[in-house]
Specification:
The protein has 277 residues and is an alpha/beta fold. It is 43% helix and 14% strand. The chain has a seven-stranded mixed β-sheet with strand order 1-3-2-4-5-6-7, with helices on both faces. The protein is globular and about 50 Å long.
Length: 277
Amino acid sequence: MPIPLTASRWGSGPLLVCHPGGPGLHPDYLASLEALAEHRTVMVVHPRGVGRTPAAAESDDYGLDAYTADLSAWIDREARGEPVDLLGHSHGGIVAGLLAARRPRAVRRLVLMATPAYGGDEADTRAHEGYRARRDEPLVAAALDTLERHDRLPADGGALGRLVANLLPLWMGPDPHAVTRWQRRLAELPANPDALHHFNTRVHPVLTTELLGLREIRGPTLAVAGDLDSLAGPDHLHRLAALVPGARTVTLPGSGHMCHLDATEAVIRAVADFLLD
């Protein structure tokens, strides 16, 4: 049974729906996408268990099918049968991509922002290689030490939000002022431990197979990622281009997994140009 989603809204005009990632991150971390509202309505949905949307009834009800059903029902309610432009970040890109594959008439144009193309041990190995390659950056070194000390997630949403903030240097570019500014903001946003635990233990190990569903996407698709993104960077972009027929790719220099924070203007420009094309 889909959970009725809530959403943050900016602007007016054609609808751009944005789905955040994590899973389980508070949707306010996508606030910089408000800049896209100059010529359209931007709505950032609050997935199950974060922001203003209720949690799932069961702690393990955070599978990809559940997220996709929630988003599908929300689009039906808000768009009233009209196709929407759809953007997803990270895990949200997986959800957005699966929806576009399963319901092509519901999505006009699709943006996959920092979206992984595979999971499992291969993805974990590549991510840690990327982190270690940047260990000469003090903030990255401290974040990597924090990651290596945590063998389990905090059960409290506030504590998980603070842990995410401490790990943020792993997912952003090398500008320490930008990183510390966003760390302060993210530390105030609670996250959903059940959602992230389910992904890490049940979804991520089989993600490569789940993502084969993206081969059914037929609409115009843009994939964007930073060249320093250890979770969904250039190698993932290359594989997404092979998975999704006709997908365009944009690589953002000096940017990490949170490319919308590292290179806000470049992301806004790339997405806006694609949606107007």
